[in-house]
Amino acid sequence: MASSEEDGTNGGASEAGEEKETTGRRRRLSFLATAWLTFYNIAMTAGWLVLAIAMVRFYMEKGTHRGLYKSIQKTLKFFQTFALLEIVHCLIGIVPTSVLVTGVQVSSRIFMVWLITHSIKPIQNEESVVLFLVSWTVTEITRYSFYTFSLLDHLPYFIKWARYNFFIILYPVGVAGELLTIYAALPYVKKTGMFSIRLPNKYNVSFDYYYFLLITMASYIPLFPQLYFHMLRQRRKVLHGEVIVEKDD
Ligand SMILES: CCCCCCCCCCCCC[C@@H](O)CC(=O)SCCNC(=O)CCNC(=O)[C@H](O)C(C)(C)COP(=O)(O)OP(=O)(O)OC[C@H]1O[C@@H](n2cnc3c(N)ncnc32)[C@H](O)[C@@H]1OP(=O)(O)O
Q1: 93: which of 7, 142, 194, 195 lies 20 to 30 Å off by Cα?
Q2: Do 209 and 194 contact (CB within 8 A), yes or no?
Q3: HEC states along the chain?
Q4: Would you give the DSSP letter of residue 51?
Q5: Quick check: CB of 58 below 6 Å from ligand 1?
Q6: 148: CA distance to ligand 1 center in Å?
Q7: Ligand 1 pocket, 116 CB below 6 A?
């Protein structure tokens, strides 16, 4: 029996039908992705705004940064952990950002929140914690509101300007806060041997968290400039309309 493609009767019509269906499915997917991203960005903007207000109120009431981390830690942990979804967004292709760049950015934050500040109580009142908390908070309010207004096609210029200028100062300040906090944690980690596995043990493996922290601090040297230059390229593209050819990761 000859197929419709072979006899040339209604092959064109069925191909057109399939194409219409694929286009319809793509449209539905892109609508769903946009709706999800809009919800996600609004929720994240709100979360970081709540954090900012809580920090300002704490400082105005107490006049010190001591106890600040403890008072905002739940909100911080929730919203920073929620940001793991950003890696998923890149992986499934609903945002055009590199998985590698986003992965480094998000995992370094998760590491700071859970494996440093949450786990090592004696460093929670260090000034350096305030340094990275303030940098992260200002950055995220600007970044998520930028994405939200962009998705809604109503982006005020000052938000676009802030998104691609604030990071010039806030990135190094945030990184300095993170590195100083890890540095402050070193004596405690060495003294307690926390998260370390000593030999002999039945699996014959050893792990020293103290040296892991030293390696992590050293890894900022090659990794941070990559993130910073990525943002400088984005800045040139968005604010000055330069066409940038990105290398594949
Ligand atoms: C296990 C231990 C690991 C230890 C690792 C140690 C090494 C760490 C070294 C690095 C340290 C970083 C530390 C960091 O935590 C310090 C700070 O953050 S300090 C505060 C200052 N920070 C910043 O300014 C952060 C800047 N970074 C970012 O903005 C992003 O995270 C980054 C992924 C780097 C860049 O973002 P992106 O490439 O997405 O740039 P754009 O915003 O221009 O977006 C590009 C396009 O994607 C669309 N997009 C992206 N996300 C969304 C979204 N959520 N919703 C909607 N659309 C989105 C965006 O609109 C753009 O689209 P288009 O090009 O079409 O316009």
Answers
A1: 142
A2: yes
A3: CCCHHHHCCCHHHHHHHHHHHHHHHHHHHHHHHHHHHHHHHHHHHHHHHHHHHHHHHHHHHHCCCCCHHHHHHHHHHHHHHHCCHHHHHHHCCCCCCCHHHHHHHHHHHHHHHHHHHHCCHHHCCCHHHHHHHHHHHHHHHHHHHHHHHHHCCCCCHHHHHHHCCHHHHHHHHHHHHHHHHHHHHHHHHHHHCCCCECCCCCCCCCECHHHHHHHHHHHHHHHHHHHHHHHHHHHHHHHHCCCCCCCCC
A4: H
A5: no
A6: 15
A7: no
176 Cβ closer than 6 Å to some ligand 1 atom = no
Summarised one tens digit per residue, pLDDT across range 6-53 is 444 565 666 777 777 777 777 776 899 999 999 999 999 999 999 999
Which residue out of 51, 119, 213, 227 has the highest number of ligand 1 atoms within 8 Å of its CB and is therefore the one to mutate? 227
Q: Whole-prediction pTM value? A: 0.90
- Domain ranges in the chain are 14-240
